[in-house]
Design a protein that fits this description.
The complex is a heterodimer of chains A (401) and B (370).
Chain A: H1 8-22, H2 40-48, H3 67-80, H4 87-90, H5 92-100, H6 103-114, E1 120-123, E2 139-143, E3 146-156, E4 164-170, E5 181-187, E6 193-198, E7 207-218, E8 222-223, H7 229-244, H8 263-270, H9 277-305, H10 316-335, H11 347-364, H12 369-380
Parallel strand pairs in A: 1-4
Antiparallel strand pairs in A: 2-3, 3-7, 4-5, 5-8, 6-7
Helix pairs in contact in A: 1-3, 5-6, 5-7, 8-9, 9-10, 10-11
Chain B: H1 6-23, H2 26-33, H3 41-50, H4 68-80, H5 87-100, H6 104-115, E1 121-124, E2 139-144, E3 147-158, E4 165-172, E5 175-181, E6 188-193, E7 202-214, H7 221-257, E8 259-260, E9 263-264, H8 269-298, H9 303-329, H10 340-352, H11 357-367
Parallel strand pairs in B: 1-4
Antiparallel strand pairs in B: 2-3, 3-7, 4-5, 5-7, 6-7, 8-9
Helix pairs in contact in B: 1-3, 1-4, 4-7, 4-8, 5-6, 5-7, 7-8, 7-9, 7-10, 8-9, 9-10, 9-11
The chains are: A alpha+beta (401), B alpha+beta (370).
Chain lengths: 401, 370
């Protein structure tokens, strides 16, 4: 314990006063994305004032504060819409570097990440390593004081504006697949990196392919020990969930969509189908999926608050995937032949068809529904894993494609 | 408001769990399924001593004043254990109806004996059309001096074969009303029905000029019946939630311990994925049941739609879980000796008493404004 413990009231007063002095909201401010932070001047002040990561050590921009007090700071920031607080919970990049970077690299990269001065992207998945992420074939070979990287990554958001990519690459091919992977902060702005936008089934391009040819990464940019990248990745993935949690997008036509539990009733009415008893059954059922997911989440939260773990937490993504696919199916059905069209003159069809395709973002991205069912079966219900034929084999000998 | 605190309820549920583990084992369930009474009076006495029969009855009438939350939680345990008893009829339907009516003399006359388990009552609601809606009431009531006379048919009446008191929903000239009938009165003829769920007893009842006492009601008696059905739906939802969790547990255990091709069958993704889906159903079932109970107990505006949601979501979940459980067990669950079919039979009963899933999905859409 420190000699003087700040009371909650005093802390709240201090942070509120600081915000009143320093936070000048500008029109059109956007939150943190993948590139440089649009509010990075302010972010730097937040870091220097030790509001960004209050639970961290004092040597690292923190206050060694309890989570409860850190929440008070986050709430004060949220109340005025100021960015930069709560990064000890939510900043995937800084937390990963803080936990695993070498002392020298940590010293430069951690403050830059907290202040939003560097753009970041993720270099994990590959064309041949999707559900089986540990099957990556991008290689990093040691040459003097650096590594040379070759390979191809995919599903990378923000690659074009990123300064660094969090990279997993194979550094030993003669050990089993999980044991020969290392984790790097790869500088993105160098000749060996080519970024190509990836056109999605929705005719948008939110992701990129990244082709890496003889790119250079200093050995000091390795996080964690050599060949221990899989362990580092687990830290990063845990934080990634808080960044990606809300990733599924709603309709995109721009036309107002009914909201709330009666939204599908209203869409059915608008489509002139509300008197169809079969449609009415489906409207009830799809609405029920949405409401049940909400009730499950509320119950999980309540159980967690009482200190009990809840099996429900792991069900949310699978539930959301069913909701999105079922809602898209019903919305298309309501339109009948109208769903043959798209574009701004047909906003309901545009939305139904977009949702039909974009539902796969949730049912495939971040672990397919099938992988998700494996995880639920194994980690929640305690069912045994499938035997893995490549578990103890040198990766060099593992079949892939 | 409930007269039972959350802490009391926890203790109560623990005691009930022990009683059920002791007195409602699978062996007992099977034994009682084959008796003509379908329940064990000594277990009924034990349930009464614990306070289950008086759970929802006012403290003024010898009960505990428990609300929908307490009832739902108790029914989770009852459902998990497949208890054979007239609980639904005598501790839920009859007291819920009496408490929704305005006949103080009837409450004083009947509720204390129901609370103590000394008497068993049931409610005859629907006629042979079996929709549990006002239009399906098929008993007519005629005034005979100050007395009343009932004629017509009631169908799917639960536990009527052991009832000491019948509450009969009938059509009087001024609208639906509730009547108290002695099941031994002249003109009452009971036909026991062969039930698919062997833990349940049901009868059709024919009334031929049966003398009856009309129970007072200030407003619409059918609204009182609906209030009773709402509480019964929450009780069934609790039973479905408890049953679902027990069946899931039993099925997952089997998938861990049954070996084929040299490995536990639960390691096969074809089986594992079915189990994951059952967990989703079972957790959703519990959430829906508890939410409906909470809404009704707190008098929330959301209560009617929450009850509709629980009615179809829990019925469908328990049906799906019990059916998939048999498939996941394979051959062993096709045998009479395995308990999986006992739960499937209970799921069928729970899914159809008081109206089908389709009926409640339709009601849900109406409540959403459709």
């Amino acid at each position: 314990m420190t000699t003087q413990t700040l009371t909650d009231e005093a802390l709240k007063a201090e942070v509120t006063a600081w915000l009143a002095d320093h936070w000048k909201p500008k029109a059109g401010d956007q939150g943190a994305g993948f590139g440089l932070h649009p509010q990075r001047d302010f972010m730097a002040k937040v870091v220097e004032a030790r509001w960004a990561v209050p639970t961290w050590p004092k040597d690292w921009y923190g206050r060694e504060m309890s989570l409860a007090q850190a929440k008070i700071i986050e709430k004060a920031f949220a109340a005025v819409g100021a960015p930069g607080a709560g990064q000890d919970r939510s900043n995937l990049w800084a937390n990963t570097a803080m936990a695993h970077a070498t002392p020298a690299f940590k010293k430069t990269i951690v403050p830059a990440l907290l202040k939003g001065e560097v753009g970041m992207c993720l270099l994990y998945s590959e064309p041949g390593a999707g559900s089986d992420l540990a099957a990556i074939r991008t290689r990093a070979d040691r040459k003097g004081d650096h590594y040379v990287v070759n390979g191809q990554k995919v599903w990378t958001s923000g690659a074009a504006v990123a300064d660094y990519g969090m990279l997993i690459a194979r550094t030993d091919w003669d050990v089993p697949k999980h044991k020969g992977i290392s984790f790097f902060f790869l500088p993105m702005k160098q000749p060996g990196i080519e970024v190509r936008p990836l056109r999605q089934i929705t005719n948008e391009a939110h992701f990129n392919e990244v082709f890496i040819t003889d790119a250079i990464v200093p050995a000091d940019n390795m996080l964690g020990p050599l060949n221990n990248g899989w362990g580092v990745l687990q830290t990063a993935l845990a934080y990634e969930r808080s960044v990606m949690g809300d990733a599924a997008r709603g309709p995109r036509s721009g036309q107002d969509n009914p909201k709330g539990d009666s939204a599908l009733v209203e869409l059915a009415r608008e489509a002139g189908r509300l008197n169809d008893p079969v449609i009415r059954q489906e409207v009830a059922q799809v609405t029920a999926y949405k409401v049940l997911n909400r009730l499950n989440n509320a119950r999980a939260k309540a159980e967690l608050a009482q200190g009990n773990s809840s099996p429900i937490m792991s069900l949310g993504k699978l539930a959301m995937s069913r909701i999105l696919h079922e809602e898209a199916r019903l919305r298309s059905k309501l339109l009948g032949a109208g769903s043959l069209l798209e574009g701004p003159d047909h906003p309901r069809a545009e939305d139904a068809n977009f949702l039909s395709l974009n539902a796969y973002f949730t049912s495939i991205g971040g672990g397919t529904d099938q992988i998700q069912r494996n995880i639920i079966g194994e980690r929640v219900l305690g069912l045994p894993k499938e035997p893995e034929v490549d578990r103890d084999m040198a990766f060099r000998d593992v079949r892939s494609g | 408001m409930s007269a039972i605190t959350a802490e009391d309820l926890k203790v109560f549920v623990e005691q009930l769990k022990r009683l059920l583990a002791d007195r409602s084992s699978e062996t007992e369930v099977r034994r009682l399924s084959e008796t003509s009474e379908g329940y064990d009076p000594t277990v009924w006495k034990a349930l009464a001593d614990l306070g289950v029969t008086g759970l929802i009855i006012d403290e003024d009438h010898g009960g505990f004043g428990g609300d929908a939350v307490a009832l739902e939680r108790v029914m989770e345990e009852v459902g998990a254990a497949l208890l054979c008893s007239p609980l639904l009829s005598s501790a839920i339907l009859a007291p819920a109806l009496l408490q929704a009516l305005d006949d103080d003399a009837a409450k004083v006359r009947l509720l204390p004996d129901l609370a103590s388990g000394a008497k068993i009552a049931t409610v005859a609601i629907t006629g042979p059309s079996a929709g549990w809606i006002e239009g399906h009431v098929a008993v007519d009531a005629m005034a005979v001096g100050t007395d009343w006379s009932l004629t017509g048919k009631a169908a799917f009446v639960t536990h009527a074969h052991i009832a000491d008191v019948l509450l009969v929903v009938a059509r009087a000239p001024d609208g639906v009303a509730v009547f108290e009938v002695d099941p031994k009165a002249a003109g009452v003829s009971l036909t026991s029905l062969p039930t698919f769920d062997h833990t349940l007893r049901m009868s059709d009842i024919d009334f031929a000029k049966v003398s009856a006492r009309r129970l007072a009601c200030n407003g619409s008696a059918w609204q009182a019946v609906e209030a009773m059905i709402d509480l019964a739906l929450i009780a069934l939802a609790g039973e479905q939630a408890g049953g679902s969790r027990r069946v899931l547990e039993m099925t997952v255990d089997y998938a861990k311990n049954r070996y084929q091709f040299g490995r536990a069958i639960g390691s096969f993704q074809a089986v594992k994925h079915m189990a994951a889906d059952l967990l989703m159903d079972s957790e959703s079932c519990t959430s829906a049941a508890r939410h409906a109970a909470q809404c009704l107990a707190s008098g929330s505006d959301e209560a009617p739609s929450a009850i509709s949601l629980a009615a179809f979501a829990c019925a469908d979940a328990f049906s799906a879980i019990t059916a998939t459980s048999i498939q996941m067990h394979g051959g062993i669950a096709f045998t009479w000796a395995h308990p999986a079919h006992l739960y499937l039979r209970r799921a069928r009963a729970d899914a159809h008493l008081f109206g089908s899933s389709d009926f409640y999905r339709e009601r849900y859409v109406q409540q959403l404004g459709g």
